[in-house]
Design goal:
By secondary structure, this protein is mainly beta. The chain has two helices and 16 strands. The protein starts with a helix and ends in a 16-residue tail after the last strand.
Length: about 200
């Protein structure tokens, strides 16, 4: 009977991990990370204006850089492409993307990972929905960040974060017109300085 229980528990854990990996979502130490290679990330707009760059982004870099003296968590995305996406700036919305944060009922700090290349926009326009339908619009200077998790400009948390949107309506010209799309995470901690959050990266 004990052996049967162990077998069933092992199978349940394997199935659970498989679901996390194949959908591109991983909860780890109070962190929920949504990958651009998973089923919780949706791209919209003409496909000819989307470019994928392999070996770039948080999933690729998670084992070879550190932040605030702490190494980042090991990448859980073993079956998700180690890549990021980009599009180019326009004067109206043509291409945009959504990360589904799954409406987790908690107060969370929000972070976007900015890769070291192909993310040069100074006014990347984000929109985060939370708390049943409220929304928060803000910009991130992707050009000033390199392999960093960036938080809200004001650094505060939000309750029940629902979706994150990023579009190409930043109205910029070269060389600042590349808008990068990579991992998004929410983190439930007492403050954004807690050890399982990536640290404070307010502008």
């Amino acid at each position: 009977m004990k052996n049967l229980t162990k077998i069933l528990l092992t199978l349940a854990m394997a199935v659970g991990l498989g679901l996390f990996v194949t959908t591109g979502v991983m909860a780890w130490n109070e962190r929920t990370i949504v990958s651009t290679g998973g089923n919780y990330f949706d791209r919209y707009g003409p496909s000819e204006y989307w470019w994928e760059h392999n070996n770039m982004g948080w999933a690729h870099n998670s084992n070879n850089w550190e932040e605030n003296g702490l190494y980042s968590n090991q990448s859980p995305f073993t079956s998700v492409p180690f890549s990021m996406w980009k599009t180019y700036s326009g004067s109206s919305i043509s291409n945009n993307a959504r990360w589904n944060m799954q409406n987790i009922d908690q107060w969370s700090y929000w972070y976007a990972f900015i890769p070291s290349n192909y993310a040069t926009s100074r006014y990347a326009p984000y929109l985060v929905t939370y708390d049943g339908g409220s929304s928060y619009n803000f910009e991130i200077n992707q050009n000033s960040a390199s392999n960093r998790w960036m938080s809200f400009p004001t650094g505060e948390n939000r309750h029940t974060i629902m979706n994150t949107w990023l579009d190409d309506d930043s109205n910029e010209s070269s060389p600042y017109n590349q808008i990068g799309f990579d991992e998004i995470q929410i983190c439930r901690e007492e403050s954004q300085w807690s050890e399982h959050c990536p640290g404070s990266h307010s502008e």
